[in-house]
Specification:
Strand content: under 5%
Shape: globular
Strand order of the largest sheet: 5-4-1-2-3-6
Radius of gyration: 29 Å
Structural class: mainly alpha
Distance between the termini: 60 Å
Oligomer: single chain
Length: 746
Amino acid sequence: MPQARGARRSPRQRQNSKNKKAGIPAGSGVGGANAANAAAPTTTTTTAAAAAAPPTAAAPTAAAVPRPNSNNGEVSVVWFRRDLRTDDNPALNAAVAAGRPILPIFIWEPEEQGQFQPGRGSRWWLNRSLARLEDDLKAIGARLAYLRGTTALRALRSLFARVDVKELFFNNLYDAVSLARDCSVKETLNNEGVTVTTFNADLLYEPWEVLGSGGEPFHTFEAFWSRMQCLSYAPRRPESAPARIALPSSDVFDALREVACTRDELALLTEDEDRCTESLSARWRPGGHGARRIFESFCRHALESFSWERAKVDIASTSQLSPHMHYGEISVRRIYYAVKDLEYAAARNETRGVTALSEEAEPPAPYDEMDDASTLAVRRRRVHEDARRTGCRLGDDTPAGMANMPRTPAGAGSHHTAGKPAREVEGPHGEYLRCLGLREWSRYLSFFYPFTHERSLLSQLRAVPWNYDETMFHRWKMGTTGYPLVDAAMRQLWSTGWLHNRMRMVVASFLVKHLLLPWQWGLRHFWECQLDADLESDVLGWQYVSGCLADGHTFMTQIDLEMEARRFDPNGNYVRRWITQLSRLPTQHIHAPWLAPTEVLAAAGVELGSDGGYPLPIVDPAESKERLQRAVDHLRRIAINGGQATNALTAEVSTAPVPPAESGDDEVGEHGGSVPLEGAGSPEEMSNSHAAGCPSREMSPTAAKRSEVAAMDGIDFGKGTLPPTLRDVHDDMSSIDKMNKRKRLA
């Protein structure tokens, strides 16, 4: 027979119940149980972008969840999302500092993610990462609770109805889905008397900290990165994990049984999916320990050669930290300062020689160990002399920000670096930090332009006459296009869930420029397969390759696949590893087997175009270039004609041919996305020269027509204005509603 609910109550609870019937006020341990406490002032701590909470919390309405009337004690809840670590977790550290017992939770709500529910590879990683987080929390005395709900708000309200929660702590996310969800959670819980406190654990700087001189957001990476490096304050230093966490009382866990579940009960993977992903365990080690292990290995063995080997796909040339960073298993600030320390050590080593850092040399004493002002002045003068030699820009009396860190090799003055690529000037450490900057840029774009996961940032690119051929798309997904470099990359993605960023750019460009298929199709396939499926980084990469960004590849530019293969897989090892049918082909024919003589194919056992053999190319390069040219002409006519039908005048539009295929020296970010070495101009310039291919940089005559589009998406290319900021999106739900309405009207 089930036990009665009243039998589980403590003696103090039963006494409070008797006192209530007798008209005696309850004790202070209940925490907001009476009407007086329900209307008490509540202060909400939010980020700099969030508006201040109302001075008083409104009394719960009929629809509000009633607060628990129990004496099981007040607790603080830490909501883990994509910050699955105890090290350098601002939300966890703040909850410890609050002094209450802490209840860590994880909420699984895939329905709330809409079309971007985590894919198979991402869910496999999440399952393993949560298991590691459980172990890390147990080491400091905490227990992770799992909640399942259709929305995070419902799950939280269900928990708060049973547990007396005074404050909710979590770290910010910057994709469009999370922004809307967090806004709703904060607004609702604030009104119900729960203090919501949020932090930055995913970025070096919050998006609203990096703005132009007029307070406007940037629209090119170079401008954003330059401003970020010139900020007067450095990113916050990483913090250690708490030594110990106070557990809630047993009554809290008794109440938690009604709503919580185990990790296995979440059913993150089906049985078939679990069997299909068994091979991933031999390749990857999710969790904070695995992240630190591969980062340390990368710093020891590959960081020094990162500048010139990072784009090679036939060797381990990158850190492969992207899946760890997506789920927050390692702090971006810890990575940043570790690389900065190595960069400064390398600069000192080049300046003073190896002997200055040898075991015989006495290391300089830190400032806090100095006795007198004269010694301090000497030390400070030496630091500034080192700064001048190594290219640092240290402030005399101000804290050193990103701009005040060493960025160039020792002795690299302006006369030595003029005209050199950024990778030679910044060195391997600066180049790796630039990749971290691309990750920051992806979240920056998602925060200020949250529609970019569905539509092009440049509005004129939304009129591309796509080729909606599902057969071609299926062959691209399965790696049977007939182009070895593309097929090898797609097979690697399907098998391992990870892909080198250079190969991501190659296969994305092939899909968009050669097959003329929508980039949104490729984004969805990547999202399903990737272990590191990161919406912000994926959107940045796809929009860049498709010509949808002001500083991205122009839409009319095709890459030369054979040249790409010769540059980044010169020996064919990458193709041989993933396409076994071609493993015996000579290197000179490995990337273009259709050009190999018949006797060479026969000797290598390669059959082209037959069942079980390697397929012939899915599209002829000349035909793909011609189809792309027709699409460019279509965009040009729309740009000149303002969206109206063509006539005799517009038929004489300039028909500049598609530029020859090229393999550009692009900045390839390791954590998603790529940017060119030089800026591509302002948005109003791009409206004339980017999509339409017009050589002139004068204002397009269609500015008046595009003002209607600007009213929907906030971009006015005619006047050269920028999209409106969404800095208040956390607390202004109406902005999200307006954005959705504009999308429906479009």
